[in-house]
Amino acid sequence: PFSKFKHELISLLVKEGYLNSCEKISVDGKDVISISLKYVDEAPAIRELKRVSKPSLRKFSSASDLEQVKSGLGLYVLSTSKGLMSDKEAKSKNIGGEIICEVF
């Protein structure tokens, strides 16, 4: 099912180059998100997607405390006061937030 949060998260992954595209479509009168996966040399661009912050245990980080994911090859997705953004964007804007997931 479609939600603003899911659409924003997937749009960020498209912007960061992990997915080809996404669009909102209607199936049987319900809105859903259609995703086009990205492959590099026949291997998926996303090798690992791990949820970090959970409802039972939320993880927060300031911009200065954010560490690199997989030696800089991956990224964290953060929920900030300015919306969802990658760890690199959050560091450049000096904004911390809740770490939603890790993408590699």
From TrEMBL:
<dbReference type="GO" id="GO:0003735">
    <property type="term" value="F:structural constituent of ribosome"/>
</dbReference>
<dbReference type="GO" id="GO:0005840">
    <property type="term" value="C:ribosome"/>
</dbReference>
<dbReference type="GO" id="GO:0006412">
    <property type="term" value="P:translation"/>
</dbReference>
<dbReference type="InterPro" id="IPR047863">
    <property type="entry name" value="Ribosomal_uS8_CS"/>
</dbReference>
<dbReference type="GO" id="GO:1990904">
    <property type="term" value="C:ribonucleoprotein complex"/>
</dbReference>
<dbReference type="InterPro" id="IPR035987">
    <property type="entry name" value="Ribosomal_uS8_sf"/>
</dbReference>
<keyword id="KW-0689">Ribosomal protein</keyword>
<dbReference type="InterPro" id="IPR000630">
    <property type="entry name" value="Ribosomal_uS8"/>
</dbReference>
<dbReference type="GO" id="GO:0005737">
    <property type="term" value="C:cytoplasm"/>
</dbReference>
<protein>
    <recommendedName>
        <fullName>Ribosomal protein S8</fullName>
    </recommendedName>
</protein>
<keyword id="KW-0687">Ribonucleoprotein</keyword>
<comment type="similarity">
    <text>Belongs to the universal ribosomal protein uS8 family.</text>
</comment>
<dbReference type="Pfam" id="PF00410">
    <property type="entry name" value="Ribosomal_S8"/>
</dbReference>
